[in-house]
Structure prediction request, 508 residues.
Amino acid sequence: MGRAAAMAAALTLPIDLRRVAAPSLGEPRPPCAILTLDGDDSLAESVAGFESALREAQVPFTRSLPAHEAAVVIVPGVVRIPRRTAAQTTNALVDGATVILESGAVFGADSGELRDHREMLRHLFGVEIDPPVSLWPAHGIPYVEYTWPVAVRVRDFSRVVPVSKHDGEVIGRAAGLPVAVHRCQGRGTLIFLGSPVGPALWSGDAEARRWLGAVLGKRAEGRG
Amino acid sequence: MVLMMKKSIGDNMIPKDWGFERGLDLVKKAGYDGIELWLGDMPWFQMTTSDSDVRALRSKVQNAGLVVSNVSTGLHWASPLSARDPKVRAQAMRIVERQIETAQLLATDAILVVAGLVTEEVPYNEVYQRCVESLKTLGSTAARSAVKIGCENCNSEQRFLLSPREFAEFLNEIGSPAVGIHLDVGNIHDTGFAEQWIEMHGPRITRIHVKDVLKHRGRSGDQSVYTNLFLGDNNWPAIRAAMTKVGYDGWLVAEMEARYRYAPDQQFYDTAHALDRLIAGQLT
Prediction:
């Protein structure tokens, strides 16, 4: 099996997600949009990880399409989100997209940035978080346990942003701490990741790719 | 084939209370051709040392009748190129950039980098990928500066690139003529044989660190596995033959542990004489 085919299989994507056509244009439109920020505001390895996983699975994605036209919007490793990106993301949820919002506060957010990050998550996405927690050296077992949409273990990224309050479902825990949730918002679904999955995708973690594939598969089935 | 290898020794071996110039005097008298400068180890050469002060170091080295064989650093053990934290990685990149800058100021064409540190927390795959990506970038910088980056094989200490083939494939992926291997013939002791590493890496060897090893001691306990040349288990005739086989005619850099309880300067003389015998192939 060729590498691309193997990765596609690992992502377990149904065919229709790869060929979503715009009814009015008659042209296939990317099912995924990755929203990145300028400079150091996105965790570079997260961006690279999501891109490489989608590229290897031959899932079309774009950075330039208006986010609300995508079925899945990925916001990798962010701390500060500009108003435009925040609006794109919340509009996408209103329009029924699945949004994967990955916190980049695990490393280096100063107290002001962290405060703004927490406020943004609470105000726009209904998720309250605690300050980042370092899992090492006490951690021992280096994995985050995800239970939805598929049960996998993904290597942790040293520090996590625990979720303290939400009105959804906890889907990931590290050292017993809730670090990933999914909740309904608008007509869409928000998946908040307090432990970056992007770097695991970047380094080839097979279970991370399986998790992403399962999320995209849920979306294609209209159940995510 | 006549090999014109030269010998040097690290400035971090100069006895602590001696000072740089007295140390240079010793290095010259003991018969070395050059000195290896360790960025971050000694007070005269730190990340904060200005360009003019680095030029002054070069003048002192030249006035002593020596040259700088290469610029090394141990700063990457605390700030590795493979760190997860982007700020730590940026610092690691800056350290290598400063090594390249100072190598030019010191008129040498090689630096030593410890590329990557695998730990329980930061796994092999991440370390490998980060190092390849950062060394591709740094290789371009080095090439423009006519400096070569030698990644040192720290083997079991790094838990990374443990075999010669793995190391060769790593360098292949980086794909830069300015990135090679600073080959340490002692660090290999528990994972392979130095002469085989020399054979497999040949023209990619930027410098060779020399030391001997007492394999039975291993890496545990309170006794060091490393020892002076010819006192340990390295097959020096095979190592010397491998150098001839690949046509290595560069620097042999003594990286010893300072083990002399008395007369610490004597280690400089003894090591220099041992290196002369190694270069001449007089090992019987």
Observations:
- The interface with chain B takes residues 40, 43-44, 107-108, 136-137, 139, 142, 155, 157-158, 199, 202-205 of chain A (CB under 8 Å).
- The first strand of chain A starts at residue 32 and ends at 34.
